[in-house]
Amino acid sequence: MNDQSITSAAPNEEAVAASAAAKPRRAPRPRPQAITLTATAVERVRALLEKRGKPSVGIRIGVRTKGCSGLSYTIEYADAKGPADDVVEQDGVIVLIDPKATMFILGTEMDYVEEKLQTGFTFRNPNEKGRCGCGESFHV
Fold first, then answer.
1. Would residue 116 count as lying in a domain?
2. pLDDT value at 106 more than 60
3. Residue 103 and residue 140: Cα distance in Å, rounded?
């Protein structure tokens, strides 16, 4: 037999610490906005806020249980920012996102359309799995 001692190849603790310190940390990815607005939606929101006649922080978007498919979008004037509201600022317009709605509307685009039979805000939500026939509600 061989009388040579067997040494383990365990790394030196100091070398491991130095190696970890030398590695640059990755910068965190920027968090995507919960919602984006088209230029026509920005202009319409701006006009509504100016016509309101009382100071507002912006508008608040949320979802509530309603309709055939389960969820419906809500839009209201926001007089103050809630402590957990997500804030989206685009072209000088502030949109507050109700914290309960964030997971349902991530990645959504809000538009304003004027057609013969319909005028209003529309939402293109990549998370939607379906809509009811009347377009009033959606499900994810």
1. yes
2. yes
3. 10
What pLDDT, on a 0 to 100 scale, did the predictor assign at position 123?
85
Q: Is residue 121 part of a domain?
A: yes
At 12-23, the pLDDT tens digits run 666 655 555 566
The sign of the dihedral angle between the CA atoms of 128, 92, 43, 119 is positive
3-state secondary structure the chain: CCCCCCCCCCCCHHHHHHHHHHCCCCCCCCCCCCEEECHHHHHHHHHHHHHHCCCCCEEEEEEEEECCCEEEEEEEEECCCCCCCEEEEECCEEEEECCCCHHHHCCEEEEEEECCCCEEEEEECCCCCEECCCCCCEEC
Q: Is the pTM of this model over 0.90?
A: no
**Residue 70 belongs to domain with CATH number:** 2.60.300.12
Q: Would you state the pLDDT for residue 53?
A: 84
